[in-house]
Specification:
By secondary structure, the chain is an alpha+beta fold. It has 12 helices and 14 strands. α7 packs antiparallel against α8, α9 crosses α10 and α10 runs antiparallel to α12.
């Protein structure tokens, strides 16, 4: 800094000496001032003009020049900023190159879209899975290249569904799962995955379960019939009667297990479209649910509360399965004699919430994430009750099929609350709503 101002001081001193010399020799002090000042201004303008040319060329570090005056301060500041910018630019390019290589190596088709759903970039799998070409298709809207009504609806309302399944535009026999991920800055990433093998495996498993269950039903029906005939026999000893009752209980358990396996195979691995399903009245739904629960001896402790004139868009038998399984679990695992609250309500976001709350022993926090697994039953449940362990798995998969969320809240010793939250696009209602509270015994 000291050298800079010394340079300017020397320039002013030289100009002053020149002014004095010209004024003494010519005697024209005004003319001497004009000449000296003009030369000094021309010298400054020349330096500023070089600075402007350097800036106009992009402040290239290879063309930087030395200026020992105050202009040098500006040059050095710009040089440092340009140097830092170049370093960041090289680092960003390196990161983007690595990111591009990694994304390109992904087996899933990946497409970068802007706010207008125009293609900005796509990787290699997108070419053979979605039929996109790069760079020919860059700038085109993806819904103009892949003409599918489900995809168009999903692009405009991605919040309604986590993903969709469509046919590949390249090969109609290929099923692909499409998911849209928001990146911020009006950009989104469309990820498509080939799920043909998974879908075929799922269909094979469902077919196997259905066939196996069908084949098991026939011998079970015969066994049940013979057990009923033996039950009507008066000559059975007490030991034989107890053995018969045990066989009957196991037969009923096997029948229930087959029904649950069939239901689970129907709801697993599939999601309804937002507009798919029947208009189901919640009032009629709960009438059927309560009728199915009449076999329980302590049914009177169930308190039901729901608004009238509410409707859901979905599969009626599966919605009934959700409600029946949750209420039956509450009756089975809660403390006898304690009330069970069954409630339908509309949240402030317009979602319908079905909840079952009991005052039972509760669930340990470590067991809560495991409850929806197939055949999982806690140590306490295995010791005190019988069951297949498929009930909550069915509830979870049925909820997922309808786009709903299944939540479990529990605290040991203070009871549990099981909730299914249905999204707004499944919720229908009329203008008039009146709440009613009934007990199971009223049905």
């Amino acid at each position: 800094m000291q050298n800079i101002w010394s340079t300017e001081a020397w320039a002013i001193a030289i100009a002053s000496c020149t002014l004095v010399l010209i004024g003494v020799l010519s005697g024209e002090w005004f003319l001497a001032s004009l000449i000296t000042l003009g030369c000094y201004i021309a010298w400054l303008y020349h330096r500023l003009l070089k600075l402007e040319q350097w800036i106009r060329k992009g402040t290239k570090t290879s063309q930087v020049y030395e200026d020992r005056g105050f202009v040098g301060i500006i040059i050095r500041q710009l040089y440092q900023q340009k140097k830092i910018y170049n370093q960041r630019k090289r680092k960003t390019k390196r990161i983007l190159r690595l990111l591009n290589q990694n994304i390109s190596a992904l087996p899933d088709a990946t497409v970068l879209l802007n706010s207008e759903f125009q293609i900005e970039w796509c990787n290699e799998p997108a070419k053979y899975l979605l039929g996109l070409r790069s760079p020919q298709d860059l700038g085109y809207k993806i819904n103009n290249l892949i003409r599918d009504s489900a995809l168009l609806t999903y692009l405009h309302n991605p919040g309604d569904r986590e993903y969709i399944e469509i046919r590949s535009p390249v090969d109609d026999s290929i099923s692909i799962q499409v998911k849209l991920v928001s990146l911020g800055g009006n950009q989104s990433l469309l990820i498509a995955r080939n799920i043909s093998d998974q879908k075929q495996l799922r269909e094979s498993m469902q077919s196997f379960v259905a066939n196996a269950s069908h084949e098991l039903k026939s011998p079970l029906t015969v066994i049940s019939g013979h057990l009923e005939m033996l039950d009507a026999e008066d000559r059975l000893s007490d030991t034989g009667r107890r053995s018969l009752q045990t066989a009957q209980r196991q037969t009923e358990r096997m029948t229930d297990l087959i029904q649950e396996m069939l239901l689970l195979s129907q709801v697993e691995g599939y999601r309804l479209a937002p507009d798919e399903g029947d208009r189901v009245s919640i009032t009629e739904l709960m009438v059927n649910v309560m009728a199915a629960l009449e076999k329980h001896a302590d049914q009177g402790r169930v308190n039901l509360e729901h608004p009238e004139n509410l409707f859901l868009l979905g599969v009626k038998i599966e919605l009934e399965g959700i409600c029946i399984n949750l209420v039956e679990n509450a009756l089975k695992y809660s403390t006898p004699g304690t009330p069970i609250r069954v409630k339908w309500e509309e949240s402030f976001r317009g979602e319908y919430v079905f909840s079952v709350e009991d005052q039972g022993p509760g669930v340990e926090p470590a067991d809560i994430p495991k409850l929806t697994r197939r055949h999982y039953r806690g140590a306490k449940s295995r010791a005190e009750t019988t069951g297949s362990g498929l009930g909550l798995a069915i509830v979870k998969h049925s909820a997922t099929k309808h786009g709903a969320t299944f939540q479990i809240e529990s605290e040991p010793g203070k009871g549990s609350r099981f909730s299914v939250i249905f999204p707004r696009y499944r919720c229908l209602h009329e203008q008039k709503q009146t709440a009613r509270v009934i007990r199971l015994a009223d049905y």
